[in-house]
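Researcher: We plan to redesign the surface later, but first we want a full-length starting point. Tokens attached.
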């Protein structure tokens, strides 16, 4: 009597073996290919950000190749304008800040020295030499993380060209890639895979577009706020263009980024005048409140529906594992995990039900009403 094998079990076993081999290969060669993976992750984020524009043009009877080329050229032009008109003055102000930083720190120590003498540990930590050494170490780690993406495997120019080429060909014809990934799974899973992929793409696209809009808005608001402070005060805050752009860029890092962006301009302002420092903190606080209560609900209402504790946890874990790049992609990774939990795991564990909304306060009368999110 021949051995009878169930076709479904054979396919599932093949899937498990393929998945195990893929995980093993990634584990063995992760360090060697990590910089390449970063390039393709960046290209994937750009694709998801621009795809809806291409689809909109295609729906209005523009050939897909023309729509893809037009959107990509506009995207490249925007990057070129930013690099040509914004980066040079920002770099100039940053260089001036680095030169002036020892004097800024010395003035801070002189102004607050009487207070720091009561706390020797803090005084040692705020010593100019200790501070500058820590700053250089931190800047070196950030610079190394930035170089990893563009120099470990390819080069800055080559990586940029590679991202543009991958983005172009993916936008031009994404379906072979989509169907190829779907083909890795059993056919009975395809409807679920399609649904999960669609929801994940919607969340990531919303995060990318929302982050871009928020970064632009926060950068402009920070610049206007610092300009108003300079306009109505006798003493001016220097380097406001750098502080504004830095504040906009730090929007990429959730929760912690906006707080970190306020520290350096506040320290510079406090070294000039304590009242100026308070005004800077107040200005950044007002901008943060505008962001939390007006901009985020409008722009990010669906893209990042995550509890702040979940965001902080994802940020710490991803930055610990993958450095600065991990901090940047922490939100989309957490969003995908939430989609998998809400759309697949929770219904699988609870007879097809989806997570409900927990009560705002007090225990629910019906225990089934309290569900995880």
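Model: Full-length starting sequence:
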């Amino acid at each position: 009597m021949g051995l009878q094998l169930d076709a479904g079990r054979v396919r599932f076993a093949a899937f498990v073996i393929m998945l195990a081999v893929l995980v093993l290969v990634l584990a063995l060669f992760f360090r060697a290919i990590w910089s390449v993976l970063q390039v393709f992750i960046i290209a994937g984020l750009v694709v998801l950000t621009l795809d809806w524009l291409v689809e909109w043009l295609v729906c209005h009877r523009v050939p897909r190749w023309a729509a893809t080329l037009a959107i990509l050229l506009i995207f490249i032009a925007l990057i070129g304008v930013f690099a040509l008109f914004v980066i040079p003055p920002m770099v100039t102000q940053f260089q001036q800040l680095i030169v002036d930083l020892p004097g800024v720190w010395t003035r801070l120590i002189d102004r607050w020295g009487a207070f720091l003498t009561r706390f020797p540990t803090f005084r040692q930590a705020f010593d100019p030499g200790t501070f500058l050494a820590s700053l250089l170490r931190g800047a070196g780690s950030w610079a190394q993380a930035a170089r990893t993406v563009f120099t470990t495997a390819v080069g800055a120019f080559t990586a940029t060209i590679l991202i543009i080429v991958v983005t172009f060909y993916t936008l031009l014809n994404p379906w072979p890639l989509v169907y190829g990934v779907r083909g890795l799974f059993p056919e009975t899973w395809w409807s679920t895979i399609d649904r999960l992929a669609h929801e994940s793409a919607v969340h990531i696209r919303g995060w990318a577009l929302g982050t871009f809009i928020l970064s632009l808005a926060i950068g402009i608001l920070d610049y206007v706020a610092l300009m108003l402070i300079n306009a109505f005060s006798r003493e001016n805050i220097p380097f406001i263009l750098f502080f504004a752009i830095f504040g906009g860029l730090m929007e990429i890092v959730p929760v912690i980024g906006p707080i970190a962006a306020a520290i350096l301009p506040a320290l510079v302002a406090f070294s000039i005048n304590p009242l100026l420092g308070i005004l800077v903190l107040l200005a950044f606080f007002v901008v943060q409140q505008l962001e939390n209560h007006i901009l985020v609900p409008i722009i990010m209402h669906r893209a990042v529906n995550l509890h702040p504790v979940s965001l902080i946890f994802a940020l710490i874990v991803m930055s610990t594992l993958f450095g600065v790049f991990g901090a940047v992609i922490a939100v989309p990774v957490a969003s995908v995990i939430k989609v998998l939990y809400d759309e697949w795991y929770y219904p699988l564990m609870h007879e097809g039900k989806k997570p409900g909304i927990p009560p705002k306060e007090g225990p629910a009368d019906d225990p089934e009403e309290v569900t995880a999110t």
